Write a sequence for this structure.
């Protein structure tokens, strides 16, 4: 088994950009994201100024590289005006190479939909919407603390189409308080009737530092959750959606470019309150992770200086296999052996012993073309990832994953949004 003392990048991985807009109308009881209840007056101008100042200071890390995707997440980015989003995207284009066909996703919640506003979002350059439906059942939405009901959800889908969006993701959750199997199937049926290009379907989890964690609601038992997952998956397949990641389903050719880059250990800049970034360097062979000040006020105060960076560290070589695998092995078809070296700068045989043990345990398959989880490996991802853990495994801050620090924690299987 080959050991490496430093990375050797033949080429750098794709580069994405994550932009975090941290405000929501209200904080949901299950939400542990870096989101904050909006103030009486949203500081749009000041915050866009801060984002562009932040990006200006990040650009020297990635001179000459092209942005492959942009994701504007939150919070609820659709609270911002179309004028503010247009100014943001115009500023991005002035600072970085952003090809015309670049996937630009914005998250939106049904309670914030106005037709002209979304027409203007589309004109500004947003070409993919991720709508936080969560459920089409008004009773379940109320239990989740959502500000919208079934009718607002359906109206949001209609407005998005009328505004010219032809690439839409719907976020749905299952395992909700008092949810039955029929309820979960009805949510999927209603979602499929809207014909979105992409559906993210993930289990509600009770995360620390949330109201649901402090006061747990009654949710379906594990056996009921398993049946929900199996039968909703069957319904999605019947409707023509392919499962390409544990919680991600799409129509043919409509995989999320942005999230696929995360899952395949690509690079990304993160700007905004609490945003995370990961950047590889060909000359030094290092991989740098950094995160920004989490609280919006602190971020606004520091965005023009180095103080905007709350944490920064270089990824250790010995931690790299776990960080790569915890994302790439969420993919149904896994990854090519060559890609591991291209995106980590390390040779695959440096972790071949760990791969072999996972194969022996029936959790992994390896061929010259692909390394991918078995069905058992997808169902028991945490057990699979154990094979790649060091004695001192990376912390949540180290593993990063989602650039707002929202996704890909270890050990967890449900993914939270895309």
């Amino acid at each position: 088994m080959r050991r490496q003392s430093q990375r050797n990048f033949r080429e750098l991985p794709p580069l994405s950009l994550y932009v975090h807009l941290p405000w929501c109308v209200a904080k949901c009881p299950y939400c542990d994201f870096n989101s904050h209840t909006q103030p009486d007056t949203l500081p749009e101008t000041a915050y866009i100024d801060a984002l562009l100042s932040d990006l200006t200071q990040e650009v020297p890390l990635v001179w000459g590289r092209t942005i492959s995707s942009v994701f504007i997440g939150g919070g609820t980015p659709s609270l911002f005006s179309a004028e503010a989003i247009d100014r943001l995207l115009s500023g991005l284009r002035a600072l970085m190479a952003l090809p015309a066909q670049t996937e630009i996703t914005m998250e939106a919640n049904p309670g914030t939909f106005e037709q002209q506003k979304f027409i203007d979002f589309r004109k500004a350059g947003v070409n993919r919407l991720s709508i936080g439906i969560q459920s089409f059942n008004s009773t379940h939405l109320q239990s989740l603390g959502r500000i919208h009901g079934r009718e607002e959800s359906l109206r949001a889908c209609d407005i998005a189409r009328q505004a010219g969006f032809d690439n839409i993701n719907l976020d749905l959750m299952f395992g909700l308080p008092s949810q039955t199997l029929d309820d979960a199937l009805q949510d999927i049926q209603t979602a499929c009737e809207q014909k979105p290009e992409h559906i993210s379907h993930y289990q509600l989890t009770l995360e620390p530092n949330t109201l649901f964690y402090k006061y747990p609601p009654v949710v379906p038992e594990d056996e009921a959750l398993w049946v929900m997952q199996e039968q909703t998956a069957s319904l999605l397949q019947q409707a023509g959606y392919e499962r390409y990641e544990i919680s991600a389903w799409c129509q043919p050719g409509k995989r999320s470019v942005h999230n696929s880059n995360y899952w395949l250990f690509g690079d990304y800049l993160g700007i905004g309150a609490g945003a995370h970034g990961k950047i590889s360097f060909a000359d030094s062979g290092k991989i740098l992770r950094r995160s920004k000040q989490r609280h919006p006020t602190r971020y606004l105060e520091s965005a023009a200086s180095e103080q905007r960076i709350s944490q920064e560290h270089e990824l250790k070589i010995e931690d790299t296999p776990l960080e790569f695998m915890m994302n790439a092995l969420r993919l149904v078809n896994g990854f090519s052996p060559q890609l591991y070296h291209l995106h980590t700068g390390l040779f695959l045989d440096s972790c071949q012993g760990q791969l072999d043990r996972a194969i022996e345990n029936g959790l992994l398959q390896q061929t010259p073309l692909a390394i991918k989880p078995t069905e058992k490996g997808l169902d028991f991802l945490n057990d699979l990832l154990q094979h790649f853990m060091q004695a001192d495994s990376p912390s949540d801050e180290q593993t990063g994953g989602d650039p707002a620090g929202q996704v890909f924690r270890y050990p967890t299987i449900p993914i939270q949004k895309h």
User: Anything to note?
Assistant: The longest helix spans residues 222-238. DSSP finds 16 helices and 16 strands in the chain.
